[in-house]
Amino acid sequence: MRTVAQRLGLTPMALYGYFRSKDELLDAVVGRLLSEIPAPPPGLGWRETVEHLAYGLREVAARHPAVLPLLLTRPAISPAAMRIVDAAYAALLVAGVPPVQVPRVERMLSTFVIGHTLSEVSGRFGDGTMDPAARRAQLPPEELPGHNALAAHLDTAVPWGEEFRADLRDLCDLIESLGRATAAGPRG
Question: What's the confidence (pLDDT) of residue 188?
Fold first, then answer.
């Protein structure tokens, strides 16, 4: 609270007029971030709704990399968060995901979007300071058989936006398969 107050030119006690605790302030920051995600336009199919929400969250996260980790560490309890999650729930239900699995699948999707974006903006995927071959050279080849078998692929620059798109498509295909399995009913 002290650091935030200092950045705003206030005393810490002045912030307590707005927020009762640090947790309440952090929850408000998460709510503010999620309020920047535009609501899906009416008439989208379930897949387009999921993609709209995923890209919206990714764009917001990329604009605010310093506070992005809050999206992984704070509960989504604000009205803005509830709207976003509800839109995802509704899309997953339309996709035919069994209601009991909808919350799990929504968590998988949101964790993928936040995690991929955080990995991108934080440099976890490789910030260019050490090329893949130099990283592999830190250990004898026999200790990294997987890395060495994939060397040609690991040494290639990755277009992160394209990888995000492909991964999201794969997740949507998984969601679609859950819906088809439910529609087909029990076998046997």
Answer: 45
Amino acid occupying residue 58: R
- Contact (Cβ atoms closer than 8 angstroms) between residue 146 and residue 89: no
Q: What is the distance of C-alpha 149 from the center of its chain?
A: 30
Give the closest residue to 116 by CA, choosing from 88, 83, 158.
158
CA distance 90 to 180: 17
Query: What element of type H or E holds 63?
Result: helix 46-63
Cα–Cα distance measured from residue 127 to residue 119, given in angstroms and rounded to the nearest whole number = 10
pLDDT at 155: 85
Query: Which letter does DSSP use for residue 159 in this model?
Result: -
pLDDT at 126 (0 to 100): 66
- For the chain, the 3-state helix, strand and coil shares in percent, each to the nearest 5, are 70, 0, 30
Contacts of 126 (CB under 8 A, 6+ apart): 132, 158
Type of residue found at 3: T
Q: What is the pLDDT of residue 49?
A: 97
- 84/35 Cα distance (integer angstroms): 9
d(CA 120, CA 178): 29
Per-residue CA distances from 92 to 70, 113, 173, 178 (Å): 25, 16, 12, 10
